[in-house]
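Re: folding output
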Amino acid sequence: MSVTVGERPALAGGSNGGVPARRAVIRWAWRLLRREWRQQLLILALITVAVAATFVGSAVATNTPPPAGAGFGTATDMATFSSLSPHVTAKIAAFTHRFGRVEVIENQALPVPGSVTTYSLRAQNPHGAFSQPMLSLVSGHYPRGTGQVALTGGVASELHLGLGGTWRADGSARRVVGIVTNPQNLLDEFALVAPGQVSTPTLVTVLFDAPGVDPHSLGPSVVSRTSAASTNVLNPVTISLAAATLGMLLIALVGVAGFTVLAQRRLRSIGMLGAQGATDAHVRLVVSANGFATGVVGAAAGFALGLVAWLAYRPRTEASAHHAIAAFQLPWLVIFVSMALAVLAAYLAAVRPARAIARVPIVAALAGRPPAPRQARRWAGPTGVGLLVLAFFLIGLASEQATSAAAETGNQSTLFLTLVVGLIVLCVGVVLVAPTCLALLARAAGRAPIVVRLALRDLARYRVRSGAALGAISISVLIAGIICVIAAARFGSAIDYVGPNLAPNQLIVYPQEAPTTPNAPCLHEPGGCPPLTGAQLAAMAAEARGIAASLGSRDVVQLETTDSALQHNASGRSWAGTLYLATPQLLRAYGITAAQVSPDAEILSMRPGLSTMTNMQFLYGATKFGPVGNSPCSPSYCLANPKIEEVSALPSGTSAPNTVVTEHAVRQFHLTTTTAGWLIQSPGSLTAGQISAAQRTAAATGLTVETRNSIPTSAEILDAATVFGILLALGILAMSVGLLRSETASDLRTLTATGAGSTARRAISAATAGALAFTGAVVGIVAAYIAAIGFFRTSQLDTLSSLTSLPVANLLLILVGMPVIAVLGGWLLGGREPSAIGRRPLE
């Protein structure tokens, strides 16, 4: 009997059943998918979420930048002039004579009363030849004649006007007849009047079509739509495609284990199929068709979910992008490519299990005996190490290209290609190295408890499949690790300091250089504006105190600067930031006493590591902006390696006084001090209403206000990356452990039959989860540092010393916290007894 059914018979004819047999096998695979969709729910959910996330993410990324033709309307060319002089009028007439249709839009800048903001008085034809996409009516109607005007929502709010109100500006009064907007730029604030109603335009825009004509031949003021469009290859489309490719790689790695377990669950059914005459190709088709169908269903479900999520999120995207976005203005190329990649990833993930299950003899399949684990290829480990080394040099080459002058002009495509290839090679190297790490881990567990040895040896024995899961976990940690390492290096720079400018409860009031209004003509004169007098500064200081009082604060610190500067006389990043004066008032405001400051210190700073920096130069006097670079430090204007003392009590904002010159340095180098502004600290975080009121009050007296920007802190970036990496790795781990333990279900039944209780089962699951999590964390962090070292070793801005800023807490959370969570999860979820101990069920 065993001889008769031991091998699959070869059917007569070359087709072995032909198309009807393949169609029957595919139908059976589809019925199995519909019947066992719960067993494939994890893979289906993973594909669905990945496609939906790519859909929404790429839609937001590609629609957030301004439209490529913003400002052109439907025209292909645009000319801009600063006035409507006779020369410009003649130029417009020449355009009309040569190209036919021409549309002229006139703008005149007008200030908002009591504010530093301005808006445009715009003369534009709502039904013009080219500008219709740049104008949309919200309510009312477009202005007609000389006595009507339409306002944008922002201008109407600033001027407290509505439909039927009277708008007074530019020496005239007009009735507000409509509310309008520029769909291509929702931040464009203007008052719309009929063509020819702007008396003294300060900006004239001419739209026309000049097909096949070089815009440079028409004059320096002419640009074309194609030349104005960005040619940067690092655009949202390419970034979205790269992210989608990486996501589908993770799906393929996780899917290998999933389809392997599903194939083994159907082993006896496949044996029956082979006994009825199915060939190896038919058996392979069962599993691979299942993978293809799973990919198609997941991609379709992800498309539907992504479309619904995008339609719900689109209004928020419009508000943040500040331009109108059509409902189906989507990156269809990215979406369809991501769906195709999802189907391809699921299919490729099923190919290896399909080949393995086709090699199982019919007798073994009918008996339910899974195939013996295949040995991992010996060349995989050395090849993976070689690819990691290659990625190290490729990423270094991309860094070198990024800092070259050619990267700013014609070498961006080469830079992007080199970087992408380097990251792909790095990921492939991680996937190939992962199975070798499992073998090393199993060898190191020789003296561990028996259940731990069983778990680790099972991982090593089945490492062809568990290695794929480990590779997916390592890549997820790699993504988080690269973000953490590079962010820590960048935010840890004491020279080019980055981060939020101010605390949420702080604002700085700056005096305008102009003595009267921010739009004073002297700002544009060659000599600039005259210095502010003492009386003007006193009046501005009183106004700053009034702003502070309106915020419920009396904490006003006068900020002063000196004619001095810091310089880093070495390669790498240059000094960035303002040097303020350490006045007694400023030190008291931050609780710094005189005893805390060395009497011979020239600089106080809260920037970590600045006090130990070498090649620092303190420039003073009138020549402080003269000698730069590697010039010698002359005692007449320069002090080499000044004494810098770190004082952590100083504020950390980039615009706040984080680095100050001591009064000792002022006396020693005879520095001149100048009032730079007033720092106000309110009792609580500033609201939008308080900020708006402060800006209006400041504008009335020629002041400007700076408040907190939206730049995240290093802690926010590091924590977000760490949480993302851990959650992604734990999600992959949860799916992988369940699938891997299902693969060894027969061994677990044997252990249970010999008396092993729930404690042993829990320990095996916990050890499996913990080993995968810890090994994946180590491999991912090591690969992240390979990429970071390769990048920084050739960088002209960030040297290898930048990597001394270690994100210790975040790395420990990944290396220790993630395995601990994995062990606890495996222990809590691994105690269930197998449903059938004495026999393997037919599924």
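--- second protein (sequence, then structure) ---
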Amino acid sequence: MEKNLPPAKVYHFAADPAKLEHEADELSRLAQSIPPDVQSVAKGMFPKDVVQKLKHLEKLSKHLRGELAP
């Protein structure tokens, strides 16, 4: 028996898929670099670029979300 199903939604993105993939890779690399920085803070050392990394992570995340959100 076939049920009446609505047609699948097809999303078309204006963004360049290669650019999105590059940004996602950069986001992943940055995110992986944060735990060692936090461990350094716990040991009393504050990496000078950790705040900039976190700001860049936020910017990349917001951009990707904006490009991928329907």
